[in-house]
Specification:
Elements lengths: L2 H19 L4 H13 L1 H6 L1 H5 L2 H5 L4 E10 L5 E12 L5 E7 L5 H17 L5 E7 L8 H15 L8 E4 L6 H15 L19 H18 L9 E4 L4 H12 L3 E2 L1 E3 L3 E4 L6 H13 L7 H4 L4 E4 L16 E3 L9 H9 L4 E3 L8 H9 L3 E3 L1 H4 L2 H15 L5 H25 L6 H19 L4
Parallel strand pairs: 3-4, 3-5, 6-7, 6-11, 11-12, 12-13
Antiparallel strand pairs: 1-2, 2-4, 8-9, 9-10
Bound molecules: NADPH dihydro-nicotinamide-adenine-dinucleotide phosphate (NDP).
NADPH dihydro-nicotinamide-adenine-dinucleotide phosphate binds next to α10.
Length: 459
Amino acid sequence: MTTQTTMSNFVTDFLGQVEAKNPAQPEFLQAVEEVVTSLEPVLQKHPEYQAAKILQRIVEPERVLMFRVPWMDDRGEVHVQRGFRIEFNSAIGPYKGGLRFHPSVNLGILKFLAFEQVFKNSLTTLPMGGGKGGSDFDPKGKSDNEVMRFCQSFMTELSRHIGPNTDVPAGDIGVGGREIGFLFGQYKRLRNEFTGVLTGKSLDWGGSLIRPEATGYGAVYFAAEMLTTKNDSLEGKTCLVSGSGNVAQYTVEKINELGGKAVTLSDSSGWIHDADGIDEKKLQFVMDLKNNRRGRIAEYTEHFGNSVYYETDPMLGYNPLWDVPANCAFPSATQNEINGKDASNMAKNGVNLVSEGANMPTTPDGVDVFLENNFLYGPGKAANAGGVAVSGLEMAQNSARLSWTREEVDNRLKGIMHSIHESCVSASGTYGMEGNYVAGANIAGFLKVANSMMDQGLV
Ligand code: NDP
């Protein structure tokens, strides 16, 4: 048997064990499989990782917290939600990763997100371990008071487990500035401490400039870096963007700034196509609609004449948003929003660059289509790392009790996205997979964490 076959057998057996140990967690298994498959050549070159069972240790969270979150609605009715925090890996720094409030939240989804976060945080060059948390609470349709009561109940339990040197949560789907404010207020009250225990804070009380913009801006900077390798730029490119929340909004803003044209946005009810482009004025409307009035994207077409709205059709088996002719795509809504057919539609319609603002938005068969068609494909753990990177910069500013200027933070963000791109290119080149950013991101992210785990002994 060749070494290659032995290694493939090892990976297959290993994935079988992970599946047996983590039943009914398909998203977690998907994330593990993608990473472990790209690590084959690394494990072959470094038998010491196998001897120390680094892989077996890296897929097992250091700690999983699951707790009851009771809260009362405005009519006096009691509700019980489930709260989670996955403290996955602290080899290179305190656990760091967002909180997601969405009815679909479960243990498997948060474990996939926390696992991805370990490698993403490692790529940022900053000292942050990986974690993620959240609840199956749905903030949609709730009053501000209901959201506040829920956040206070959630933090009452979470506060026992986090701290500025232990675990520093941030926002994610359903957790924006409003929720971070309520969570921070309750933590401060319980602990009688004003610390940088959360990131994504408001500017008035310890937040960082550019944090709200960072994930979207970073995904566009990463796309620009990939295009530079082909002596190309975003100037004049038509771009598809999904979602209409935090990441999507600032992705559109930066695409416009760099001379591209964003033509789509979506929410869970449907999507809009505006062939004229979503310019700054239209984007301001979307920001007010989503961040203040908390309305639906369908309203866009009532205000901007040439645009069209299409309702989501779950029976269709593909998403027609990805069938619009374009050059670049920035998925910015949620996991597995692009399947094999969507990816084929993109290839057919001229798209050859995908920069993932969302986490794991592409299914494995979709990723195969991107790689077979030689797309410039920036996977989420590299392309959307700008958000957590600026969270890391927020932590640094909090520790120093200082605030940096917008230019300073934006320049650091650009520098970090450049260095993540370099790391991906260099790692994929070293292991003979030039141009494969998936392998590059997984390998570069893994090596730093694995080496730190080796240094720190069997813990
Ligand atoms: P928001 O809650 O601000 O926005 C999410 C958007 O995606 C909304 O338009 C929402 O529509 C849509 N969406 C959510 N779930 C679904 C679904 N199941 N089907 C269809 N549409 C859906 O979240 P963010 O913009 O912060 O996050 C978007 C993605 O980016 C997520 O994958 C997140 O993990 C990732 N990410 C976010 C970071 C950040 O800094 N915020 C950092 C790195 C990654 P609706 O309102 O109808 O639910």
